[in-house]
Amino acid sequence: MAVYNPKSLKAEEFINNEEILATLEYAEKNKNNAELIDEILNKARPVKTAGGAACKGLTHREAAVLLACEIPEKIDEMYKLAEEIKQVFYGNRIVMFAPLYLSNYCVNGCLYCPYHLKNKHIARKKLTQEEVAREVIALQDMGHKRLAIEAGEDPVNNPIEYILDCIKTIYSINHKNGAIRRVNVNIAATTVENYRKLKDAGIGTYILFQETYHKESYLKLHPTGPKHDYDYHTEAMDRAMQGGIDDVGLGVLFGLELYKYEFVGLLMHAEHLEAVHGVGPHTISVPRVKRADDIDPDVFDNGISDEMFAKIVACIRIAVPYTGMIISTRESQAVREKVLGLGISQISGASRTSVGGYTEEERPHDSEQFDVSDQRTLDEVVRWLMELGCIPSFCTACYREGRTGDRFMSLCKSGQILNCCHPNALMTLTEYLVDYASAETKKTGFELIENELKKIPGEKVRAIAAKNIEDIKASNRRDFRF
Length: 482
Ligand code: SAM
Known about the structure:
Number of helices: 20
Radius of gyration: 22 Å
Bound molecules: S-adenosylmethionine
Structural class: alpha/beta
Oligomer: single chain
């Protein structure tokens, strides 16, 4: 039997089934232990430091107790603490992005995904470089600056060279004042050598969802294709980091397995990355299984309620306070609104999940991965966020200024990231408003920016930010950043 060891590079040792089961038993036993829950909540509270604030985070065992907790007052406290942590480290900024589907050719047999090899009625498409350019122009014309590229796994149709060509094309397009300044990549687990190529191509975060940490279920859910190899998939982030990518994004597809098991697995994975590479995941995504062509989500009987979904988001926020958290348009406006304050730091807007979808007038369904729940335009999403008191941010400065991996984390841990992020958010929001927003969104936005400028603590930074904002409004000068 494998022994739990967070420092091991073997999947069965750092995501250790026995440790997860023992953790779940411990959490179940202590779910009404108010004294212990208080202790855990107190450990997780932010404390003031000379540079700003700091949080200790929680172990997977401690976090599992919070997730299991059934005491209503303690759950309320949890939500308040999650909101506080979000404010301290991420403020009211929400980073915007869009997915770009490059190809839905796939050789895997994933039971939950319409791109599975046996699905013969979905239209198979792969963008040419001209089509990639057209999609990018459409995305730039909406105002997007950050993309997550998506592709099925198919060594013949979508080899790494194809992905690299697409990245090159994406970065090369400057339409009007538009530019894609950060390309995150969500492609199948690959080799150290290929991760190095992605790093050299200038990617932001490498994202790979574990789908499920439960090995037995994983093997059944991925019956055929290279993705069947649980260890290769689970150890991918270590290879990515060995290849020089230091911002990696984790996630599980909620609904496939028991959520408590996934939650513990996810946190153990984060602990493992910290233990081995000295830096935890840059982001955690929380997708839920959706209806799709040839896919009925009801056949997976581990679906979670919106209430439980919110509790999971809050518990992740408390356990890993410095990790960004992403929510996609798989979720409706109402659910997104519910979880925004609890710790989400990035959301997608106006997403199309089909290959070539952004150049079509109507959302096409023939090649899509799942239907989106939040179908609003980017302008509507941006205005909605501002009306909720958030600052939609199009900032991509950190990785372009070399603030990745442990350098990002140490800035974030000292609370100093606020000195860069807040002015950067306001400057990139100004770009968006000037170049792309409707009159109504502009009005809301400029009022918000005026108020938010006053909150920048340093006088010098505030003056520079104010001057840059005026420059953006008055000219075509773009891409100011701290
Ligand atoms: N092919 C890549 C891989 O194997 O990791 C990733 C690209 S795939 C387009 C991105 C993610 O979509 C998958 O990791 C999976 O979690 C998610 N996904 C697949 N089917 C889904 C469904 N029916 N509902 C919601 N999300 C789904």
